[in-house]
């Protein structure tokens, strides 16, 4: 059960309490699953993009169930933008670090033992960087579209 | 410089994200980052001119499996064009973009577009080409609609739909090539295709590529998006789109694919020549009727790209003598470089006219050369150069293409090229008369010269127009021969796989 | 072979949707369908019925992998092309919303101020 602040129980915002309760149960699992997909991306199917999409979906369910204000308090648009850019930058920096071995994006860390969590050199690091980027940018896209959509429907109502 | 080859995409990408991050701290930071990044890129691209062909293994992976970056004379020319023009466009934007909001996002998209174009030029891998093509295209879709006004959004959406079809066609072609050869590495695919020959599957790939890259290069049956999209963008972006983007994504990709991957072929040659001639004539005739400054320039872009395509088409024909093919290629590449210079000059001029007068309707302009001497003079130089008046650069490149066409025995196409040259002169004289000379409308009495940051790129580009025209023999020997040899020599390109 | 035709049918359906429908949203759906038909085509290229996962373990001969495994390259390509498709889709929807704000319609035949 995810612990959310009290005003979240405000029945005027978001969906019904059935949905809210279920989201409280599910959200932790969704986030955990996303993190698992990201961290085990080099061993099992998945990786930074897939895991990042799952993490972003967690945020999106939060938004749908509890309303936009809460989700924006968890991750505001400035924070999303900073995370977005620094995730991409981290990925590039990993690529630049490959120059220490002579090539761009060289896998310069020891590859380790196959099928262990700490193996495959830079690939898990890349996955984590990509996950940050994808989570925040997908969330930002969703927020931008939904805020703009709300703004527009108000515009149309006013005209009518 | 060899070890730093991937920096051509890495620097603009890094600058995009750093600029967006730093814009949270200071307002002018994004300007500074974009300026520095493009300045470094411009210097690097000039230094690359002195390199000999090589190949770069990304991540140290061996060629047929890993991603390969290839460098030869053709990439060198394109890199210089892209990075120098984008540097000048960024200088122009420093002042011009103050009329728009969200400057950091503008610079971010601009740098992403540069990263995409540089990526297309440096890569030696088919799928990598598609990815960078999409990066550059997506950034340009967003930049066309940057002003968020009615017409800009409509143009952007049209461009998006047609660009989406083009990308799909290119990806389909790449998937087909992969199914035929089992490889994505360009030299490797070329070697495999030598064994396969031109089967029906390869012909289908050629059709898809002509459609896809033809849409990006905006050859005439595929040109519907360009006259809407290019004028709608902010002026520096119009200069980038018309001056560089259609060449890097369209013409360069066609050259790489047709000469190096698929190989010279008579059928493709005749199709390309026909498309080129059609583009020249149709767009040239349409340009005369335009009364919007930028719209006329956009049509003239299509028309001038026709010259490049017809030159390429002639060189693609394996039955043409090697000397003629080489001459045609030199003409085509020289015209490509020249067009990048004078078309971005003209678009930037239209930007500074619009910045001061607030309109680009030719009917409402006039007599501006008295009020804006620098803009007016550079605009005249650009118009004379594009119309092919000696001693400016446009004259030489058109002359070479026409001579090659006549030597190759294509008298009709040669005549068309000459006639379109006159057509170009006609509509640029119209442009001159309506915008720069003639009576000054009363409304424009208070117009002043554009600020220094906007006139500086104009002066540099105009100087380049003159310099490329006068110093033509020098350029000819140094740059163009390397590019022409690189294109015609398919074996050398395939050998990149072994060397390096 | 029949599966490749499925990809082709999807492609043609997408193109039809793109060309024949006037609603912008439907056009966007059409372009997405064409994209996904290419993705399907790419996946089918690498598919091998009864194949194994393309992981080279220690002590396993390379030739065995080459003979029995599924081709991993198209899968990587499809992942990339899906990501690109997502980016294009988001941009298209955003432009679409903006167009609706300005024109108050999703009908492409009413959005025709430019001459083309």
Blueprint of the fold:
The complex is a heterotrimer of chains A (160), B (500) and C (116).
Chain A: H1 17-39, H2 48-66, H3 68-74, H4 77-97, H5 123-159
Helix pairs in contact in A: 1-2, 2-3, 2-5, 4-5
Chain B: H1 7-22, H2 29-48, E1 54-57, E2 68-71, H3 73-96, H4 103-122, H5 126-144, H6 150-181, H7 186-196, H8 200-217, H9 226-232, H10 235-262, H11 266-288, H12 293-316, H13 322-357, H14 368-371, H15 373-387, H16 393-407, H17 411-436, H18 452-470, H19 472-488, H20 490-495
Antiparallel strand pairs in B: 1-2
Chain C: H1 2-20, H2 24-46, H3 62-68, H4 72-103
Low-pLDDT windows of residues of chain C: none
Write down the secondary-structure element order of chain B: HHEEHHHHHHHHHHHHHHHHHH
Q: Could you give the order of the helices and strands of chain C?
A: HHHH
Count of domains of chain B: 1
> Overall 3D geometry of chain C?
elongated
Round the mean pLDDT of chain B to the nearest integer and report it. Answer: 87
Strands side by side in the biggest sheet of chain B = 1-2
Query: Structural class, from helix and strand content of chain B?
Result: mainly alpha
Tell me about the biggest sheet of chain B?
A: 2 strands, antiparallel
* Second-tier CATH architecture of chain C: Orthogonal Bundle
Net shape of chain B: globular
Gyration radius of chain C, in Å: 20 Å
Please name the defining characteristics of this protein.
heterotrimer, A: 160 residues, mainly alpha, 0% strand, elongated, C: 116 residues, Helix Hairpins, 4 helices
């Amino acid at each position: 059960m995810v612990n959310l602040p009290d005003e979240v129980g405000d029945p005027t915002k978001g969906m019904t309490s059935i949905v809210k309760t279920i989201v409280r149960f599910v959200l932790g699992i969704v986030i955990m699953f996303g993190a698992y997909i990201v961290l085990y991306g080099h061993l099992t199917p998945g990786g930074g993009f897939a895991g990042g999409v799952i993490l972003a979906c967690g945020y999106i369910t939060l938004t749908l169930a509890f309303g936009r204000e809460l989700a924006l308090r968890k991750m505001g648009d400035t924070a999303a933008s900073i995370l977005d850019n620094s995730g991409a930058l981290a990925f590039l920096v990993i690529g630049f670090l490959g120059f220490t071995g002579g090539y761009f994006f060289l896998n310069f860390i020891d590859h380790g033992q196959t099928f262990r969590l700490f193996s495959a050199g830079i690939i898990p690091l890349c996955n984590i960087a990509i996950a940050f980027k994808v989570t925040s940018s997908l969330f930002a896209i969703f927020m931008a579209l939904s805020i703009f959509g709300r703004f527009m429907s108000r515009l149309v109502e006013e005209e009518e | 410089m060899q070890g730093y080859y991937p920096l051509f995409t890495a620097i603009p990408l890094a600058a995009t994200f750093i600029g967006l991050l730093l814009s949270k701290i200071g307002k002018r930071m994004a300007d500074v980052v974009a300026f520095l990044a493009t300045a470094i890129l411009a210097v690097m691209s000039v230094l690359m001119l002195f390199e000999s062909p090589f190949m770069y293994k990304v991540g140290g992976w061996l060629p047929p499996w890993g991603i390969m970056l290839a460098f030869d004379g053709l990439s060198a020319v394109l890199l210089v064009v892209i990075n120098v023009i984008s540097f000048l466009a960024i200088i122009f934007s420093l002042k011009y973009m103050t009329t728009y909001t969200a400057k950091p996002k503008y610079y971010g998209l601009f740098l992403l577009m540069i990263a995409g174009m540089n990526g297309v030029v440096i890569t030696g891998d088919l799928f990598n080409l598609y990815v960078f093509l999409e990066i550059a295209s997506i950034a340009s879709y967003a930049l066309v609609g940057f002003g968020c006004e009615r017409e800009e959004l409509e143009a952007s959406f049209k461009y998006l739909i047609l660009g989406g079809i083009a990308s799909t066609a290119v990806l389909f072609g790449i998937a087909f090539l992969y199914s035929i050869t089992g490889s994505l590495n360009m030299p490797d695919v070329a070697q495999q295709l030598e064994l396969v020959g031109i089967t029906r599957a390869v012909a289908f790939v050629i059709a898809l590529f002509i459609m896809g890259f033809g849409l990006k290069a905006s050859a005439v049956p595929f040109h519907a998006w360009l006259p809407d999209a290019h004028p709608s963008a902010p002026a520096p972006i119009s200069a980038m789109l018309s001056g560089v983007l259609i060449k890097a994504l369209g013409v360069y990709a066609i050259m790489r694919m047709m000469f190096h991957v698929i190989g010279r072929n008579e059928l493709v040659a005749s199709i390309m020549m026909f498309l080129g001639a059609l583009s020249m004539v149709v767009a040239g005739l349409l340009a005369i009727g335009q009364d919007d400054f930028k719209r006329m320039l956009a049509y003239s872009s299509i028309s001038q790209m026709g010259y490049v395509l017809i030159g390429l088409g002639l060189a693609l024909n394996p039955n043409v003598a090697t000397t003629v093919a080489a001459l045609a290629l030199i003409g085509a590449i020289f015209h490509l470089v020249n067009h990048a210079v004078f078309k971005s000059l003209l678009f930037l001029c239209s930007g500074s006219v619009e910045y001061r007068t607030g309109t680009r309707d030719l009917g409402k302009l006039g007599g501006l050369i008295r009020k804006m001497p620098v803009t007016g003079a550079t605009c005249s130089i650009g118009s004379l150069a594009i119309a092919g008046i000696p001693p400016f650069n446009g004259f030489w490149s058109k002359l070479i293409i026409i001579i090659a066409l006549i030597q190759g025995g294509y008298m009709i196409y040669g005549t068309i090229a000459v006639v379109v040259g006159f057509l170009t002169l006609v509509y640029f004289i119209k442009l001159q008369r309506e915008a720069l000379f003639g009576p000054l409308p009363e409304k424009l009495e208070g117009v002043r010269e554009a600020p220094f940051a906007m006139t500086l790129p104009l002066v540099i580009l105009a100087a380049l127009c003159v310099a490329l025209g006068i110093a033509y023999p020098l350029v000819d020997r140094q740059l163009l021969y390397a590019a022409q040899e690189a294109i015609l020599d398919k074996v050398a390109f395939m050998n990149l796989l072994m060397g390096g | 072979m029949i599966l490749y035709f499925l990809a082709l049918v999807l492609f043609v359906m997408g193109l039809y949707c793109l060309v024949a429908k006037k609603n912008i949203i439907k056009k966007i759906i059409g372009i997405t369908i064409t994209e996904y038909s290419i993705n399907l085509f790419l996946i089918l290229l690498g598919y091998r019925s009864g194949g194994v996962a393309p992981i080279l373990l220690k002590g396993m001969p390379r030739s065995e992998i080459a003979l029995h495994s599924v081709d991993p390259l198209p899968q990587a390509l499809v992942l990339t092309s899906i990501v690109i498709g997502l980016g294009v889709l988001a941009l298209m929807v955003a432009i679409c919303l903006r167009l609706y704000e300005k024109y108050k319609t999703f009908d492409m035949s009413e959005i025709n101020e430019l001459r083309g």
